[in-house]
Amino acid sequence: MQLHTLALAGTAAALLATPSVDAHARLYKPEPEYTVSDRNTNWSPVAFLENQGYKTTSDFNGWRRGKGYKTLRAFMDDSSAYKPVSGATFACGWTNPKTTAKAIPTDNVVRLSGYTHDGPCEVWLDNVRVLAGDNCNKDFAEQSQKIDYSSCKNGCMLRWYWLGIRPLEKMSWQVYKQCIPLKGSGARSLDDPEVGGEGEYPDEYAAAPAKNATSSCNRKAD
């Protein structure tokens, strides 16, 4: 009986010692400024697309490319594609893009809480995409990723995008967007790895396709 009690106590202690895992996702570094202080709100999705007429499946990437969106950002910044939940802004979700600019990390890192669901993600510095993956839950298992900040000259806007794919009663497509203004000029360290999707993109890669090509994209997939 005593051993059983000790075992239960040990299990409880282990649970208390285990750090909590964010159920959704957020940026930690550079740190954004939120427009709401409630933690349960400011890490929540900006939109749930299954509630906006989309015929959601597990293959969001195939759907996006089939609709002519060249990047995840192009879809997420298409104001005709979806509406944000109450209280969030379409451009930056729960974050304030007009806050005091943050210093560019000296270690060239972007750090997130971690991707808890499947789905694609991207990080942009103004018009330069510095990180991209089709399934960031697997592509970027570590919370910290080195990126090339050298395109950020005399300040820029860091934009993070993630489309979380979560199986609920029906497949949930969850939109996450955050913006952090940065100051200073970034540099690329010699040990920075080459990351898929890097490079400056013309405006068409950050914008929705022409309207005549997307007239059927909102909302249901064909």
UniProtKB/TrEMBL annotation:
Q: Please provide the record's keywords in A-Z order.
A: Signal
Reading the lineage from the top rank, the first entry is Eukaryota
| Positions with biased composition (Acidic residues) | 192-203
Q: Where is the composition biased (Polar residues)?
A: 212-222
Which stretch is the leader sequence? 1-23
Q: Where are the stretches annotated Disordered?
A: 185-222
User: What is the recorded name of this protein?
Assistant: Uncharacterized protein
Lineage of the native species?
A: Eukaryota, Sar, Stramenopiles, Oomycota, Peronosporomycetes
